[in-house]
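Please fill in the sequence for the structure shown.

STRUCTURE ENCODING:
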């Protein structure tokens, strides 16, 4: 899971590509690998031989040849060897729980997601995550070596407890790490979800965050949060809750926020706020799935652009303070047409010109799975064999 994938030797990238095809079921013989990749047979044979030597794939029963395929010997099937020290990631959103299991290279072995009002049902969300992960472990046959989870609210790094009595109402005072450890019988590390999103983009993304020493990751979904990378390392603040930008007040805005105040950024710019605005502008449109199907349309794009400009006005001030090399936008809203353009327009308009000219504004390369990828990356980096000192403290 290197953050420097473009420097990996070609032979290693070739082997990883073939391994991914075998693991995903896209090919199970050498000939199928040749057909799928259009690589030379000698290249495929060399890469397969290397993977077999490394114990990452094995040869199984000979695959039966199809009708009309000739009378030659049946082809040998290739089977990916499941790593015994897999890692798991858990992503608690405000309205979903998703879990994934990956091998030591970061390749997904299994993924599940379920919808739930996570804010109001902490015990149910924790139980659901444990149940889904247990099911994935049984399905994939792995033995977990490390687990990392992300929560969408302030988490005190000194105690491991959720600290806000309003943002995650049913979680306040809970220690998610301890709760998950008890349910899974495994040590579980917990971080803020936006911090994990930043970590995922820094380590595994292919966009603006990867390779950057200084960038700001912003998750725009049912809430608004940020993760800050400074000097190539995550900055989480004195008590671990840096990046809680969702409750910055917008002057003159009357919208009520779940934190008890009015005019908070996430009360104005969130999935719910955008959906409500679309319904107001175009009452004839069904908006329940308007952000999930990504189809957009003129009304959605206009409303999303406006929401992006509102967020961008705040981010422009943060850019003046922090001078990041990039603003990386994740979460559901970042996938809606018009939103990222709106953020970019506001930053270009409102940030100090010398800063606006140098900051890159773009959507997260990992999309709305950045947090889950970050959890998996951190789980691998936190294992004794892979600890590299780059993880947040």
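FILLED IN BY: designer on duty
SEQUENCE:
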């Amino acid at each position: 899971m290197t953050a420097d994938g473009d420097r990996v030797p070609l032979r290693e990238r070739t082997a990883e590509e073939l391994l991914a095809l075998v693991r995903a079921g896209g090919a199970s013989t050498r000939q199928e690998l040749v057909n799928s990749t259009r690589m030379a047979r000698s290249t495929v044979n060399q890469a397969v031989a290397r993977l077999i030597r490394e114990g990452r794939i094995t040869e199984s029963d000979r695959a039966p040849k199809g009708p009309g395929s000739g009378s030659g010997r049946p082809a040998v099937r290739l089977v990916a060897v499941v790593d015994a020290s897999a890692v798991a990631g858990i992503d608690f959103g405000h309205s979903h729980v998703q879990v994934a299991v990956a091998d030591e290279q970061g390749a997904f072995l299994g993924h599940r997601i379920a919808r739930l009002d996570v804010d109001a049902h902490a015990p149910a969300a924790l139980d659901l995550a444990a149940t889904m992960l247990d099911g994935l472990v049984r399905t994939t046959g792995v033995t977990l070596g490390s687990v990392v989870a992300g929560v969408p609210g302030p988490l005190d790094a000194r105690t491991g407890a959720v600290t806000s009595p309003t943002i995650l109402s049913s979680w306040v005072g809970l220690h998610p790490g301890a709760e998950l450890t008890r349910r899974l019988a495994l040590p579980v590390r917990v971080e803020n979800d936006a911090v994990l999103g930043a970590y995922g983009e820094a380590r595994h993304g292919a966009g603006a965050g990867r390779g950057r020493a200084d960038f700001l990751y912003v998750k725009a979904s049912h809430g608004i949060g940020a993760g800050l990378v400074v000097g190539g390392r995550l900055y989480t603040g004195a008590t671990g809750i840096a990046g809680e930008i969702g409750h910055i007040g917008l002057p003159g805005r009357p919208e009520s926020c779940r934190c008890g105040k009015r005019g908070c950024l996430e009360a104005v710019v969130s999935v719910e706020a955008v959906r409500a605005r679309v319904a107001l502008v175009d009452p004839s449109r069904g908006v329940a799935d308007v952000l999930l199907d990504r189809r957009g349309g003129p009304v959605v794009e206009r409303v999303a652009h406006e929401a992006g400009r509102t967020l961008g006005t705040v981010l422009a001030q943060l850019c003046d303070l922090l001078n990041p090399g990039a603003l990386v936008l994740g979460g559901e809203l970042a996938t809606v047409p018009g939103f990222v353009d709106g953020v970019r327009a506001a930053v270009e308009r409102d940030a100090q010109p010398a800063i606006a000219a140098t900051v890159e504004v773009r959507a997260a390369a990992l999309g709305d799975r950045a947090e889950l990828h970050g959890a998996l990356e951190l789980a691998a980096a936190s294992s004794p064999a892979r600890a590299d000192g780059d993880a947040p403290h």
